[in-house]
Amino acid sequence: MNIQIINRSHHPLPQYATAQSAGVDLRANIDGPIELRPLERRLIPTGLFIALPPGYEAQVRPRSGLAIKHGITVLNTPGTIDADYRGEVCVILVNLSNEPFMIADGERIAQMVIARHEQAEWEPVEVLPETERGAGGFGHSGTK
Predict the structure, then answer these.
(1) What's the whole-number average pLDDT of the chain?
(2) Count of domains observed in the chain
(3) 133 in a structural domain
(4) Position 135 in a domain
């Protein structure tokens, strides 16, 4: 699939790390280091602008290495970039650790996955079809 992209950053275009990778890394495009204090959240620019085809979204997700090593995650995960959005791709990072974290220019701060989606057409009804689970909610399926 071809996706049009404008790269106003000073970093290479996002790339898949391996042939089987689902996501590409997004890099911080900043003038200088940014300190992210404990429990602080910041909008970090990437310098990328994309045009997705209709029926697709880009999902911005945390990087597992940043999460486990430093407690850094994407606050609204997954963040959705709609096909009709033409603004800069930015990442809302939050520091869930007890230590400040320095974000450097070019640092891989998140990953982006391109995914197909559907739009629902709502059909109002009075009763839903029965299932084995029924209305069982959180924890309903047990620990087996």
Answers:
(1) 95
(2) 1
(3) no
(4) no
Give the confidence band of 143 by pLDDT, cuts at 50, 70, 90: low
Mean pLDDT over residues 68-96, rounded? 97
The verdict on residue 16 lying in a domain is: no
Kindly report the CATH number assigned to the domain that includes residue 108: 2.70.40.10
For residue 4, CA distances in Å to 17, 21, 47, 73, 89 come to 20, 20, 14, 27, 13
> What residue ranges in 8-107 does DSSP mark as E strands?
23-27, 34-36, 41-51, 56-61, 72-74, 79-81, 88-95, 101-103
Range of the domain at 107: 23-116
The region of weakest confidence among 53-62, 97-106, 126-135 is: 126-135
Q: Please tell me the pTM assigned to this model.
A: 0.89
Cα–Cα distance for residue pair 60/6, rounded to 1 Å: 17
